[in-house]
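Students often ask why we bother encoding 3D structure as a string. The short answer is that it lets us treat folding as translation between two languages. Here is a chain of 559 residues written in the first language.
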Amino acid sequence: MNFDFLLPSTLLRKGREYSRKLWVRVLIMGLLAVLSLLLSMLIERWIPQSLATYLTGSAADRLLSIIANAMLAVTTFSLSVMVTVYRSTSTQWTPRIHRLIVQDRTTQNTLAVFIGAYVYALIAIILRELGVFDDKRSFVLFVMTVIVLTVIVFSLIRWVLHLQTFGSLIDTSRQVEDQTRRPFKERLLNPCLGANPLTGDIPDSAKPFTADENGYIQHIYPEALNTVAENHGVKIYLKRNIGSFVFVNEPLMMIDRVGQPKDDEHTDETLHAGINASITIGDLRLSALVVLKALAVTGLMIAGARILSRLITGRLSRNEDISPTMRVLTAKLLQVVLFSLAVIVGLKAVGFDLTGLAVFSGAVGVGLGFGLQKVVSNLVSGVIILLDKSIKPGDVISLGDTFGWIEELGARYVSVVTRDGKEYLIPNEDLITSQVVNWSHTNKLVRLDLHFGVSYGDDPHRVRKLAIEAAAGVRRVLSNPNPPVCHITGFGDSSVDYILRFWITDPSDGLTNIKGNVYLALWDSFAANGVSFPFPQREVRVLPGSTLDTKATAPEAKE
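And here it is in the second language, the structure alphabet:
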């Protein structure tokens, strides 16, 4: 087996190659976020109890909610700025300079920090709901969250300062100078890039080694090539250098056999594989076969992700230890992660270069800001609702003329079922921007007010007593700890106006029906005790000297 890629110099070059890819930096930042949470759990055990209980988990919850809510907006804004710069520079500069701008370190690092912080906040919120970080052991979590917030602020300030010159002529020229100066310095220190200089002509016995695909030579690893040559008893003469464009079956190098392989494992096949592993050629050459392969592999990965998502969602729905809100949030998060991994792994399996996902993400950001504004607004609003727990399945809400209970929290809408069996699909954005009455947000206690009037001839003290007794006798009306009360609210034109206030604990069973029952109890109680409900009366007086014509006009004769 060939382990040439494990050489320190080769690993360093491989690391530099992958460090310029956006998805690698985002993945590393996400892993660091997970590791920081694991580290906080380990450190928490060594914190004294007196210090651990100094701060409760609610302090960390507020910071985590701020990070989770803010990172979505900041990341979308950053992607929009990135795609705007990428599109403008693609027409102003050459393709190589455009790729240099796409691989800008500050931009990639900032975006990676934002996404990593979002992952950190989501995982921390889930762990809090699962009880991993309880209120008594949340000191380290709070400190770690403060550190993450500090990194976010620093990255944001750096990003804003970088935007002042990002994509400009001065900044791009500076990057080109830096990128040009670095290879020149390396070439002066190592003229042959780790290989031996050719002092004569290539032997006639050497045979050509051709390229297997079209593209630019992106990397050559001389250390690995030297090891391959020693193991197979050959000499390798490079004909093309880094940056050269090669076609299929075009000679890359000449191979001259000068000895025997070290053992039987080093054959022509391993020689060919070792050379291909030591040279990187890009970009991907598309063909019908590659496209079909990509569709097949990606389809299988998505199907597997869907099956796994359904299994995990089913298990979460049966777990009573997790709140309904966190069940929905965890299920949605798992679906996004699984399907994203399915697409990335599927494309990567067939050889697609995922560096272009940065540009694609920027294009998506612009699309979100224009054509998909409402859709994205509903999606983001749904995430915010799940994070702040303002609305959860089973809650009784009122939105405008709609009164009912939450049946399901969707990615784009909330399903509200009324008492008459109608199901309203309310967009998540309306629940964020509009005034919503959640009858069961903090507790299920609900106060209802009834207005009525009685005649001026009835004793108000007796009326208040009868109203309270009538309301207390109705089922669902609480008598403890908040008994019904009745107060005079004013003296009307024909009646003394009262307000009757009482409490219930089951708004999901209806509000109109309980009000109707209390009104009926008032009617029965007042009728039994001689309390009357006055009718509106108007008194008309004729002033002296005026006349009132009461003569009816005869109807016209019909023809």
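Translate back mentally: The longest helix spans residues 57-92. Keep this in mind for the problem set.
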